[in-house]
Amino acid sequence: MQNDMELSSYIEQQKQTRKKRVFAVEWKGRKVWVKQSEQHIQSVWHKLGDVVASITSNPLFTSTVSEGGVAALKDEIRRLQVLRSKGVAVPAVLASGDDWFAIEDAGIALHHILQGKQHEYSASEQQEILQQAAYALAKLHHNGRWHGRPALRDILWNGFNIVFIDFEEDLAAKISPLDCMVRDLFLLIHGLYRYLPEDSTLVLDVWRTYQRNAPRDVWLATCHLAGRMGWIFQAARLLKGVGGHDVKQTYATLKFLRKQAE
């Protein structure tokens, strides 16, 4: 990382008036994103999730809340630099301070693309971009790496390529590499159903693209995990009409993955 001292000084000034943890600044004609450290508190529910994950051998229940703070911020900088050195599409870290770092703007988040924000994307454009996202995640897994929590807001499209952001959580300290990848794939499908209908063919396109390019054991393990979540599937089926987004997404995701296992 080449720490731009002029940019660093400018960001230190901007921090004094910015209230958000993550904010954007304009710098020499381009957008730069600044992320500040934040101390996290693991609630009793997070701890309970870890217990349930251990008992059920289900990585989806594993808490992703890190302790945060400066140490977590430095770890994220390190992960971004390592991933970038390995050819993974992540933004360059442009500068950093004692409790912040700055990255280049890397595009528009997938959830904005599916919502049609900032630009109206045709069905064929959405299909191509989502297939690129599936391929990028598959490539990440094929190289023995993972994201940890690939929410659609953390997967960006820059007009040419998919770029991953937000590597704050380090799940490898809690679960195996395979479980990290299974969690990635499950959460990608789950995230898509937030914005796509249950019968969307785009989800199948994403799945098939991933399946063709990823390690076989990852998608097989993901299907197996969905098959073991029978009681959650039935509960979500019963409650999907009255439940919120998470219930509907969970039902659609488990229905889809269980079908792929047939």
Write out key terms for the chains shown.
262 residues, alpha+beta
Question: Could you walk me through the main structural features you see in this protein, from its secondary elements to its overall organization?
Answer:
This protein is of the alpha+beta class. The chain has ten helices and seven strands. The protein has helices at 5-15, 44-56, 69-85, 110-115, 123-142, 177-192, 201-213, 216-228, 230-239, 245-260, and strands at 22-27, 30-36, 93-96, 100-104, 108-109, 155-157, 162-164. It has a four-stranded antiparallel beta sheet with strand order 1-2-4-3, sandwiched between helices. Strands 5-6-7 form a three-stranded antiparallel beta sheet. Helix 6 crosses helix 10 (245-260), helix 8 (216-228) crosses helix 10 (245-260) and helix 9 (230-239) packs across helix 10. The longest helix is centred in the middle third of the chain and has 20 residues, at 123-142. It is globular. It starts with a helix and ends with a helix. 31% of the residues are buried.
